[in-house]
Amino acid sequence: APEPPPERITIEGAMSVQELASLLRHSEAEIIKILFFKGIAATINQTLEVETIELVANELGITVETASHSAEAAKVTEMLESSDLDHLQRRPPVVTIMGHVDHGKTSLLDAIRNAKVAQGEAGGITQHIGAYHVDVEQNGEKHQIVFLDTPGHEAFTAMRARGARVTDIAVLVVAADDGVQPQTIEAISHAKAAKVPIIVAINKIDKESAQPDRVKQELTEFGLVPEEWGGETIMVPVSALQQQNLDTLLEMILLVAEVEDLYANPDRPAKGTVIEAHLDRARGPVATLLVQNGTLRVGDILVAGACFGKVRAMIDDRGQRVETASPSFAVEVLGLAEVPAAGDEFEVFSDEKSARAIAEERAAAQRQSRLAQAATARRVSLTSLS
Ligand code: GTP
Ligand code: MG
Questions:
Q1: Which residues form a coiled coil (predicted)?
Q2: End-to-end CA distance of the chain
Q3: Which residues line ligand 1 (CB under 6 A)?
């Protein structure tokens, strides 16, 4: 009997219809038919881009993981340079909380911060990526953890598509009364593709209908086997609502961070990634920047993506103005001339003139590639008409 189609495939990049057909274990004719109904006229030897491959696979209910980002990611993640090596200091872990809708991501973060973010949000839904700094005392030592709160994973996807690697550890929240859901699976594949270690927080264990062992069982199907069952994944039962077991979760995060070798050189101009950005009517462009190497200071001249800026003010997660932001810290920055995109890299320059020139050069390149894309789109629609 022929092998059944796979549930997921991992691809490196573009490939031909023929190659895709054999990978998906469907006939070439079927692939071509699916493309046809999507308005794409294709032949057997035609090369399909990653996005098109995803389109076809999704139609067949097959998940696509791209390994191609890793090379790009490695390039972008090269936040450290050889000149930094003699000046490395430990930096706090940057942790992303992921999970299915309503499984308690915001509540968990909220409980950890001991603040009341979830209640204050419009409709209880996270509207933007927030970055929060948490102080943890352990064995008399002070540690810090930086948390990113992701909305639905869209921003994470956008950042990963651009090759940005901002997270050191992923905390996967799974509600004990609801189990593994589509976005749980999506989160696992994001974290795995980015090679980020996963810690599972089995939440809502206070509920009568909680079945933590069932959640563990379900997770094993996705390659996450709990340590107590002989696997390698740390799973912590918690209740965000009743603030249960949060200390253990934080302890586990620090434990994983310890073996991850997280270092940066604070004694150099800052470099990092734009986590979020928007245009504020009163304050102009506002960007949340995650510093991944160096120290960011008020007055610094920077380029974020294709945007030039001079740091006019920096505000931390508590709304306090700060003068500096060291590695792993995220701050809201005022003073950019335009709004950069989430996932853009930023870098501080010593010379304003060259910073402006770089920003302008990149903006021109972006305009160029947008024009080229539009031209390709026009050509494709003309081809499918003929
Ligand atoms: P989105 O941002 O919309 O994806 O949701 P979320 O994952 O951030 O979930 P949120 O924290 O908003 O919580 C969803 C609901 O679950 C809320 O009604 C919370 O009060 C409830 N909840 C969260 N954690 C717990 C918990 O530990 N126990 C119980 N019983 N309820 C919880
Ligand atoms: Mg939320």
A1: none
A2: 40
A3: 99, 101-107, 118, 124-126, 203-204, 206-207, 239-241
3-state SS assignment for residue 133: strand
Euclidean distance between CA atoms 103 and 55, whole angstroms: 28
Return d(Cα 246, Cα 152) in angstroms, integer.
23
Q: What pLDDT was estimated at residue 160? A: 59
Q: Which ligand 1 atom minimizes the distance to the CA of 109? A: 11
Question: Which residue ranges make up the annotated binding site?
Answer: 99-106, 149-153, 203-206
Q: Note whether 63 and 57 are within 8 A (CB).
A: yes
Contact 340, 277 (CB under 8 A): yes
To test ligand 1's pocket by mutation, which of 100, 101, 102, 186 has the most ligand atoms within 8 angstroms of CB?
Answer: 102
Residue identified by tokens 């992923």 is: 170
Q: Which ligand is nearest to the CA of 239?
A: 1
Q: Are 278 and 339 in contact (CB under 8 A)?
A: yes
Neighbours of 117 (CB within 10 A): 15
Task: Quote the Cα angle for 189-191-193, to 5°.
Answer: 65
Return the pLDDT at 193. 78
pTM given for the model: 0.74
Q: How far is CA 156 from CA 14, 105, 164, 362, in A?
A: 22, 15, 9, 23
| Whether the Cβ atoms of residue 102 and residue 182 lie closer than 8 Å to each other | no
Q: Which atom of ligand 1 is nearest to the CA of 183?
A: 4
Mean pLDDT by 10 residues, the chain (386 residues): 80 86 93 89 87 91 72 51 85 91 91 61 46 84 84 57 75 96 88 87 98 97 94 97 94 93 92 91 94 97 96 89 95 95 91 92 86 75 62
pLDDT for 184 equals: 92
Q: Which helix (H) or strand (E) holds 215?
A: helix 212-220
